[in-house]
Amino acid sequence: MYREGQATAIHRADYTAPAFWIDTVELCFDLDPAKTRVLNKMRMRRNPDVPAQALRLDGEELNLARVLVNGQGASFKIEGNQLVLESLPGVEDGAFDLEIFTTCAPAKNTKLMGLFVSNDTFFTQCEAEGFRRITYFLDRPDVMATYTVTLRADKAKYPVLLSNGNLVDHGPLDDGRHFAKWEDPFRKPSYLFALVAGQLVSREQRISARNGKDHLLQVFVRPGDLDKTEHAMHSLMASIAWDEARFGLPLDLERFMIVATSDFNMGAMENKGLNIFNTKYVLANQATATDTDYANIESVVGHEYFHNWSGNRVTCRDWFQLSLKEGLTVFRDQEFSLDLCRDPSAKAVKRIEDVRVLRTAQFPEDAGPMAHPVRPDSYIEINNFYTVTIYEKGAEVVRMMQTLVGRDGFAKGMTLYFERFDGQAVTCDDFAQAIADANPQSELARLLPQFKRWYSQAGTPRVQAVGHYDAASRSYSLTLSQTCAPTPGQATKEPFVIPIGLGLLAQDGSALPLQSADGSTLSAPYTFVMTEATQTLTFVNLDAEPVPSILRGFSAPVVLVYDYTDAQLLTLLAFDTDAFNRWEAGQRLAVRSAITLIAGDADISGVKPLNDAYIEAMRSVLRHPDLDAAFKELVLTLPSETYLAEQLNVVDPQRIHAVREAMRSQLAQALANDWAWAYETYGDTGAYRPDPLSSGRRALTGMALSQLCLAAQTSGDVVWPGKAYQRFKDAGNMTDRFNALAALVSSGHPLAAQALPRFHALFKDEALVLDKWFALQAGATDRDGNILPAVRQLMKHPDFSLRNPNRARSVVFSYCSANPGAFHRRDAAGYVFWSERVIELDGINPQVAARLARALDRWKNLAEPYRSAAREALVRVAAKTDLSNDVREVVSRALAD
């Protein structure tokens, strides 16, 4: 049953230091799936800065067998999920030893938090509060200790025994068992603890760092997957080299290990020296992984390795500071990927892809019931705050810091940050202060108190720009005004510090010099730092009204409002030297066409939403001899249904879907000859390589094939669907094969019915490939209301399991969260399905259930009858009395007025 006491909100303002410190931890595990024994010996001491009080240790689903203080039995009591020791005899003024013996049942742990078993292998996940499911502990990030860990297990069943740090001893035990002893010399919080035990094999690589030290790198996987680990190893080596070169941060342990598991709630976890990964972000070869998989592996491997310093060596004082490590480390992995792109166009593509994630996921979060600052003020369940706001928006906040101090200045700030705080648990304020202190003459140092509003204020600022050209004075004035809408708990917002990249173009597309009113020429690239509610810039010596290029490179996470004419947008699309704004101009043109039709009430059947000028502009992009293929693919990709919905106050999902499908069909037919040219021109990429240039060619080829199959559905042409099916059969890599399959499925061609079972037969033993197969069907275009029945059928497939997070996401999330045209049904059946799955998943894995629950965050924006039906589904879930805190917090906030 649901217990009211579980739902207590935790507030950042209530933070107090722990009453006790833990200096050393010795853990001994006797590993058994049904009953694992954990002996926990801690050297503890009172915190002299906190008034004397009882020792309270966190624990969940543990069987307590023994508690000793200084080797003697001690009185204790259990209060809720805490072990309480009120009297600690003889230790009031000093340190003491505490010994706790408990057991747990890893095989029954479907939450995948704490110690659990997956495919007969032991794994742990302790962030944020999973360590308390292993032993009683001060399970909070500001309690840091050194750990010595001994693992004991049956050698035949669990030949590999891993934990954090360095291996110091190992050997046989009686009865066919063996042990391994690990020491981590660095103090860490409990959330960074890890162990792994099972039948694993490893790819190994020895490297020498710049400081001359040798290190062993290991990637552990299940037998049979070793051939899919080369890319992950190369990504790890590149990450180590980059962090040393860019920030002077070396690998600090004798070895660094990555382990992959198919049962994991997250993408990966940065446990000190022993990173545990979802297999999705480790395993890849050209037969089973797409270009996107390769790019994601490189990014995530980098992200988790970079945490070794930004998160591990310096960690969070409390969970409200989560973006201290996550926002900073997302920025670091984005910079890593950008630096690996040697071609400027590849860098532009990477930046645009990052911005698309922000605008299609984080901006809606900022506008919904779960809106929260980058540094939240309160939470009920911390797992609900591993969000795009903490990660992606947090990264943009760090990026703005770099903009304000410069690349070299930011590196200086990072050096100072680690010098000041190595081995400590600190706050977002500490980080920002270090960057400013290292650059005392910078704009950041001058504006730091105001800049930190990015940490404390929720919501996405809107920057309204209005331009005025005065022919008599040959001057152009640009007035910028910033506002930010109210969010839950924050009715009013103070002005932010907003760096805005600016440029001016002539009507013929040539770049214009930026001359200020005093006649001085501003250096390019120029960034204006906006600090007030309204500010005006004036540029002189202009013979005609310019076309402004505003927010270049997406220099701040804001919504830019400017009343561009179509002609101005076409100029930016054709000529802007800033790749982001060139792409953005195309997006604005498409959004404008879509919104005009969606917001009206005219019959849209058979309508052609796109005008001739847009079609010709897209043809010019597609045929442009100098543009990179990956950039072309981005420009030619229409804004998503989710992004279009965010531009509307009242959302009719079916109308949005119909209009976007009409746009897609029109582009397919109008550019049919051009798509055919692109397919033939870019189709042969030679031997498979996952580099940006080759990946871009495959992306554009895949788009062309998809469009040609879509056009064929209207014209009755059988050639291109036939070519797609042939490519599906003959492809030498997963990217081309899956693109061909997706082209058949997305166009609704009958050949898809032959290709789908053939694909399954080819890859029935490849779990990650089957995830793609499931997701493609659950995310397919809904033409006759047939997707929901197909999804229900997929859930009955022998290869489907709701208990596996990857498989659950591939079907249920692909339908509910990523297929709005199919999910938002007028008969409400999609919402009924959602409520059933949220409740079902909550009994298995509350963390995954809470993620699914967020599919209806924006229900209040829906038009009727969707709005009432969505609310009814939310109420149905909220009425369950035994909901987890994870799900209850999400649905309660969604239903709040």
From TrEMBL:
Domain Peptidase M1 alanyl aminopeptidase C-terminal stretches: 566-896
Residue stretches making up the Aminopeptidase N-like N-terminal domain: 91-192
GO molecular function, one term: alanyl aminopeptidase activity
Domain Peptidase M1 alanyl aminopeptidase Ig-like fold: 459-563
Protein family per UniProt: Belongs to the peptidase M1 family.
Keyword hit for Manganese: no
Protein's name according to its UniProt entry: Aminopeptidase N
Record organism: Rhodoferax ferrireducens
Keywords, alphabetical: Aminopeptidase, Hydrolase, Metal-binding, Metalloprotease, Protease, Zinc
All residue ranges annotated as the Peptidase M1 membrane alanine aminopeptidase domain in the record: 232-444
InterPro entries referenced in this protein's UniProt entry, alphabetically: Aminopeptidase_N-like_N, Aminopeptidase_N-like_N_sf, PepN_Ig-like_sf, Peptidase_M1, Peptidase_M1_dom, Peptidase_M1_pepN, Peptidase_M1_pepN_C, Peptidase_M1_pepN_C_sf
EC number annotated for this UniProt entry: 3.4.11.2
Enzyme class: hydrolase
Catalytic activity from the UniProt record: Release of an N-terminal amino acid, Xaa-|-Yaa- from a peptide, amide or arylamide. Xaa is preferably Ala, but may be most amino acids including Pro (slow action). When a terminal hydrophobic residue is followed by a prolyl residue, the two may be released as an intact Xaa-Pro dipeptide
Cofactors named for this entry: Zn(2+)
Gene3D superfamilies: 2.60.40.1840, 3.30.2010.30, Neutral Protease Domain 2, Peptidase M1, alanyl aminopeptidase, C-terminal domain, tricorn interacting facor f3 domain
NCBIfam families the UniProt entry points to: pepN_proteo (TIGR02414)
